[in-house]
Amino acid sequence: MVETIRLGVAVMGNIASVSLYAAPITTFRRVIRKKSTEEFSCIPYIIGLLNCLIFTWYGLPVVSNKWENFPLVTVNGVGIVLELSYVLIYFCYASSKGKAKVAMIAIPILLVFCITVTVSAFAFHDNEHRKLLVGSVGLCVSVAMYGSPLVAMGPSVIGIPLSILQLALHCKYRKRSVQESNKEDLEKGNLEKVELCELGNGGCGKECDNS
After folding, report:
1. Are residues 132 and 179 in the same domain?
2. Which domain holds residue 167?
3. Which of 1, 23, 65, 164 sits 20 to 30 Å CA-CA off 99?
4. To the nearest 10°, the Cα dihedral for 138, 143, 145, 149?
5. In this structure, are 165 and 148 located in the same domain?
């Protein structure tokens, strides 16, 4: 009974995960149709690819105990195909600047995977430590994958408090500037008045003071 429940949950989890990885298909159909990436970010798909690679490696017998995590291999194997397709399509239709950005992000991501594989395979000699290392890396990558769409609003989030600060400083120093300007205008007006009196009365004196 327990094994049946476990199998059912695993199947439902696989279906949900594949649906998640397949969700951007409509977006990339539009990219192919318009032959343009429309300047949206490629970061979520590259991190998604790393996530699938890490958890596929986690499910293989090298890390896990035999095929105890075989469902991970199947779902993330499909994820690798889909995410890699998204990245390649993005690369094909991106501008020169966009292609350079893809390369700059993808190369370090693949290095992280290669380092994880190398260390887990050769530095550790038991499944428990291998699973701990690969699972920890996979956990961090998963958090990054689900948080990566926030890059679209990251500059706005940072810009809002900075804009508020800029407006506050502008209002504060603008008020002081207006007061100083009014003071200078008043002093200038008084000086001009004195000069006119001196010119008109040949030394003004008491009459100028009373005017």
Report:
1. no
2. 161-210
3. 23
4. -170
5. no
